[in-house]
């Protein structure tokens, strides 16, 4: 189906002319430009998202560690802008040692990485991340690191890893929390797997069962790959515009091993994700 269009009919134009004495020229220009821009925007965003693009919802998967799933963290138009901003800036993704130094091993991490330049869309994403109450933005020592896009082509992956660092004399802080935002998900495979997490349930399935045997957890199947064995942990599906938030360290600043996660291999197409990392100085 094509995007809905808004047509300026003769009757509408006649009504506008009749009301001209009540408006200044500036008012009329603003009205017409708003209508035209809305019509243009509706050609860029599918009709299903025009009315509900700001209806963000959050789902708490775990409280320890805190893991929250967010729908509609960004709009499809914003996702397109972020993809465009990252183009021509990609390089092989690095691996980080405990002292923060970089290395490369494509057998372990085969994605591409691009650091985004500061721009209006980047500032908007940063402000949105800070607007969530669970982010704790009032801590003066907490700041957002430059936003980074990860691109996964066919067969590309990032095996089990943490976003936090072990204590080291050269480090003055740690990555306290992560937003991972799917900005392009034209793919199969490529899920984000947390092998040590489990779905909240009053009746967990047996270890040989799949994640969802029915019951309380069914609502999660929209976002989580329910066909994977329960022992595989939780695997989030790549869905454009949605995001995962998790805290990496506990109240003492120690990294939480339960946040181990991986970017699973893409089996067709391409996936792109945006990292919004908060850094806290100690």
Care to describe what's here?
Pfam families: 2OG-FeII_Oxy_3. This is Prolyl 4-hydroxylase alpha subunit domain-containing protein. Residues 1-25 form the signal peptide. GO terms for molecular function: iron ion binding; L-ascorbic acid binding; procollagen-proline 4-dioxygenase activity. The protein has 282 residues and is of the alpha+beta class. It has helices spanning 10-19, 25-44, 47-50, 76-86, 120-131, and strands at residues 57-63, 66-71, 91-92, 95-96, 102-103, 112-115, 142-144, 148-152, 158-161, 173-189, 192-194, 234-236, 243-247, 261-263, 266-281. 20% of the residues lie in helices and 29% in strands. Strands 1, 2, 3, 6, 7, 8, 10, 13 and 15 form a nine-stranded antiparallel beta sheet that branches. Strands 9-14-11-12 form a four-stranded antiparallel beta sheet, with no helix packed on it. It folds into two domains: 10-44; 49-197 and 233-281, Jelly Rolls (Sandwich). It contains five helices and 15 strands. The termini are far apart.
Summarize this structure as a short list of keywords or feature phrases.
2 domains; P4HA-like; Jelly Rolls; 15 strands; alpha+beta; 282 residues; globular; nine-stranded antiparallel beta sheet; four-stranded antiparallel beta sheet; signal; dioxygenase; disordered N terminus
* Count of distinct structural domains: 2
Radius of gyration (Å): 22 Å
Number of strands: 15
| CATH fold-level assignment of the largest domain | Jelly Rolls
Helix residue percentage:
10-25%
Oligomer: single chain
Quickly name the level 1 CATH class of the largest domain: Mainly Beta
Percentage of residues in strands: 25-35%
**Major sheet: size, sense and barrel closure?**
9 strands, antiparallel
């Amino acid at each position: 189906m094509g995007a809905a269009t808004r047509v300026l009919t003769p009757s509408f134009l006649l009504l506008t002319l009749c009301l001209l004495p009540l408006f200044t020229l500036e008012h009329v220009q603003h009205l017409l430009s708003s209508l035209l821009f809305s019509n243009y925007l509706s050609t860029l965003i599918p009709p299903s998202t025009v009315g509900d693009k700001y209806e963000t919802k959050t789902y708490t998967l775990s409280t320890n560690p805190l893991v929250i799933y967010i729908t509609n963290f960004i709009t499809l138009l914003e996702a397109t802008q972020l993809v465009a901003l990252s183009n021509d800036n990609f390089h092989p993704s690095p691996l980080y040692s405990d002292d923060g130094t970089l290395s490369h091993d494509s057998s372990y991490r085969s994605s591409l990485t691009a650091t985004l330049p500061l721009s209006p869309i980047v500032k908007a994403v940063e402000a949105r991340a800070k607007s969530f109450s669970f982010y704790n933005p009032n801590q003066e020592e907490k700041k957002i690191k430059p936003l980074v896009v990860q691109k996964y082509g066919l067969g590309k992956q990032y095996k089990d890893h943490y976003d936090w660092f072990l204590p080291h004399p050269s480090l003055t802080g740690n990555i306290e929390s992560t937003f991972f935002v799917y900005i392009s998900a034209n793919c199969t495979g490529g899920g984000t797997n947390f092998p040590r997490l489990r779905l909240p349930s009053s009746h967990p399935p047996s270890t040989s069962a799949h994640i969802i045997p029915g019951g309380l957890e069914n609502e999660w199947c929209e976002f989580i790959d329910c066909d994977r064995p329960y022992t595989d942990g939780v695997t989030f599906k790549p869905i454009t515009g949605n995001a995962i938030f998790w805290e990496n360290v506990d109240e003492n600043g120690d990294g939480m091993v339960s946040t181990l996660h991986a970017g699973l291999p893409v089996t067709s197409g391409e996936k792109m994700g945006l990292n919004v990392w908060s850094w806290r100085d100690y």
